[in-house]
Amino acid sequence: MLNIGCVGIILAIFCLVGSAQADLKIGFYDQSCPKAEKIVSDFVNKHIHNAPSLAATIIRMHFHDCFVRGCDASILINSTSSNQAEKAAVPNQTLRGFGFIDSVKSLLEAECPGVVSCADVIALVARDSIVATGGPSWKVPTGRRDGVISNASEAQSQIPAPTSNFTTLQTLFANKGLDLKDLVLLSGAHTIGIAHCPSFSNRLYNFTGVGDQDPALDSEYAANLKAKKCKTSTDNTTIVEMDPGSFRTFDLSYYRLLLKRRGLFQSDSALTTNSTTLSFINQLVQGTLENFYTEFAKSMEKMGQVDVKTGSSGEIRKQCWKVNS
Ligand code: HEM
Ligand SMILES: *[C@@H]1O[C@H](CO)[C@@H](O)[C@H](O)[C@H]1NC(C)=O
Ligand SMILES: *[C@@H]1O[C@H](CO)[C@@H](O)[C@H](O)[C@H]1NC(C)=O
Ligand SMILES: *[C@@H]1O[C@H](CO)[C@@H](O)[C@H](O)[C@H]1NC(C)=O
Ligand SMILES: *[C@@H]1O[C@H](CO)[C@@H](O)[C@H](O)[C@H]1NC(C)=O
Ligand SMILES: *[C@@H]1O[C@H](CO)[C@@H](O)[C@H](O)[C@H]1NC(C)=O
Ligand SMILES: *[C@@H]1O[C@H](CO)[C@@H](O)[C@H](O)[C@H]1NC(C)=O
Ligand SMILES: CC(=O)N[C@H]1CO[C@H](CO)[C@@H](O)[C@@H]1O
C-alpha cells in the first residue's frame, strides 16, 4: 500500500512538473533573458509614435498567427521554391510590420542568442503597441516556441474571411477553443485600423451576382463609400478606416456602428444576426470602456494561448523569417 502511495505521489509530482512545463508563464525569460520584455517595450515605445498604424497590423498578425498551427510565428516564415507559406495566402496579402518584428528579434538575439521565440515577440509587440497607442492592456505569459511549418492553404481555410457568415465565424473560432463572447470581443479590434476595398466591395457592387448591394449594409453609408472611397468595383488600392472618425482610438464605436448597420465587413455585420452575439454587443455599448477593456483582455489572453508549443517542441528561431537549418 505504502509503495503504491509513493508511486502515486511521485507520478503526481511528475504530472505537476509536466503540466507546468506545458504552460506559458508570466516572466518566462526572467532567468534566461531578464531584459527581454523591457527590450521589447522600449523599442515599441520608441518607434510606435512614428508609425501608430503598426499597432493595428501587428495585433492582426498575432490573430492570424494563432489561428494557424497555434501562436508559433508560422506567419513570419517566408515562402521558398518548394513551399507556399502562410504569408502567401490571400488573408495575409495586406499584413505589414514584418520588418518591425525582425528589428525587435535582432535586438533580442544580440542580448541573449537563441533564447526568445519569435512567437513571443509577436505576442509582446502586439500588446505593447496597443498599450503605447492608448488601448487596453492584457497579460502576456511567455514561453511559446516557434513552429517549423507554414502552409498557405491552411491559412486560407482557417482564417475567417470578411465574407464569412455567422455559422462559419462561430465554427472557425470554436475550432480554436474560442466562444461567441470571444468572437464579439476580439472582433472589437476592428475599432482600429484600415481595410482595402476588395475586402468589402462586393457589398457595394455585386452582392448576389446581379449588380446589387448588401441589404444588411446601411444604404447611406454604402452610397458614401461608393462616392468617396471605393469608386469602382475593382479598386484594390484605396484604404478605408474601419471605424471612421476614430480609427486610431480603441473605443466602443465599432460596436455602435454595428448597431447602425455600418459594420464594414459581412463578418462584422454577421455578429448582429445572432441573438447571443447581439446581446453581447448591446451589453458592451451600454457598459463602460473600462468594462470593454477588461473583457477584451481576457479574450486576448485566451487567443494568445491557442495551441501554443512549449517545452521542447518546436524551436527558437534565429531569424523569424525562416526555420533554423
Ligand atoms: C472575426 C473574424 C475576422 C475577420 C473576418 C477579419 C477580417 C479582416 C479583414 C478582411 C481586414 C482588412 C484587410 C484589408 O483589407 O487590408 C481586417 C483588418 C484588421 N483586423 Fe480583422 N478580422 C477578424 C478578426 C480580427 C481579430 C480577432 C483581430 C484582432 C484581435 C483583428 C484585427 C484587425 C485589425 C487591427 C485590422 C486592421 C489592420 C490594419 O490596419 O492594417 N481582426 N480584418
Ligand atoms: C521575407 O519576406 C518579407 C515580406 O514578407 C520580405 O520583406 C523580406 O525581404 C523577406 N526576407 C528574405 C530574407 O527574403
Ligand atoms: C498544406 O496543407 C494542406 C491542407 O492541410 C495539405 O493538403 C498540403 O499537403 C500541405 N502542404 C504542405 C507543403 O505541407
Ligand atoms: C455560411 O457559409 C458557409 C460557407 O460558405 C455555407 O456553407 C453555409 O451554407 C452558410 N450558412 C448560412 C446559414 O448561410
Ligand atoms: C456580378 O457578378 C456576376 C457573377 O459573378 C458577373 O457575371 C457580373 O458581371 C457582375 N456584375 C457586375 C456589375 O460586376
Ligand atoms: C490591382 O489591380 C490592378 C489593375 O487591375 C492589377 O494590375 C494589380 O495586380 C492588382 N493588385 C493586386 C494586389 O491585386
Ligand atoms: C445563436 O447562436 C447560438 C450558438 O450557436 C445558438 O444556440 C442560437 O440558436 C443562435 N441564435 C439565433 C437566433 O440564431
Ligand atoms: C507580406 C506578404 O508576404 N504578402 C504576400 C501575400 O500573398 C501575395 C500573393 O498571394 C503576395 O504577393 C504578397 O507578397
TrEMBL record:
The lineage of its organism: Eukaryota, Viridiplantae, Streptophyta, Embryophyta, Tracheophyta. Ca(2+) 2 binds at residues 191, 243, 251. Its main location: secreted. This is Peroxidase. SUPFAM superfamilies: Heme-dependent peroxidases. It catalyses: 2 a phenolic donor + H2O2 = 2 a phenolic radical donor + 2 H2O. Its cofactor is heme b; Ca(2+). It holds the Pfam family peroxidase. The active site is at residue 64. GO terms for biological process: hydrogen peroxide catabolic process; response to oxidative stress; response to stress. It is an enzyme of class 1 (oxidoreductase). Residues 23-324 form the Plant heme peroxidase family profile domain. The gene is LOC104604902. Keywords: Calcium, Disulfide bond, Glycoprotein, Heme, Hydrogen peroxide, Iron, Metal-binding, Oxidoreductase, Peroxidase, Secreted, Signal. Binds 1 heme b (iron(II)-protoporphyrin IX) group per subunit. Removal of H(2)O(2), oxidation of toxic reductants, biosynthesis and degradation of lignin, suberization, auxin catabolism, response to environmental stresses such as wounding, pathogen attack and oxidative stress. These functions might be dependent on each isozyme/isoform in each plant tissue. Substrate binds at residue 160.
